Amino acid sequence: MHDVAMAIEYLHHGNDTPIVHCDLKPANVLLDENMVAHVGDFGISKILAVSKSMAHTETLGTLGYIAPEYGSEGIVSASGDVYSYGIMLMEVLAKRRPTDEELFNENLGLREWIRLAFPRTIMEVVDANLFPEEEQITSKSEICIASMVELALDCTMEIPESRITIKDVVKRLNKIKNTFLKT
Known about the structure:
This protein has helices at about 1-15, 70-75, 80-95, 110-115, 120-125, 140-155, 165-180; strands spanning about 20, 30, 35-40, 45, 55, 75. It has about 180 residues and is mostly helical. It has a single domain, classed as Orthogonal Bundle (Transferase(Phosphotransferase), domain 1), CATH 1.10.510. A two-stranded antiparallel ribbon has the order 1-4. It has a two-stranded antiparallel sheet with strand order 2-3. A two-stranded antiparallel sheet has the order 5-6. The protein starts with a helix and ends with a helix. About 30% of the residues are buried.
């Protein structure tokens, strides 16, 4: 997820003209032989004019991953990619797709399900396979998971202006990684 965040940061801030992916989801992330993630499928990506931070489109991304403003109003912005990233992070942590009809419906989605579990019962919705059987779940690992879930929730705020930027995502992921890897 760190590799994906860095790729999106490059798209948004690595050039004079920001590029918005518009369809960030696990199927568009490829892993190489070293398990390094690469973002692919730029078929519906948009190049934002230098003077504009958003654009309008009629091309939709994938349901479950698109930001509310993108789906309802056709507004494309960097914060829409951040929203999609947050949903992807939730999917990785919970091992549940946002379109899982068995669990989610029009009243309850992946974000709301995780938000309701956070912070008290978050370990009940996190994929147990993240921790091998022989590995003890420590308070340190719980803090790491809680930090990741909090990051995902901050990425998926309903109002685009309330979401953090992808630069903030990368900073927080680095902080989580450094905190968790300390001995």
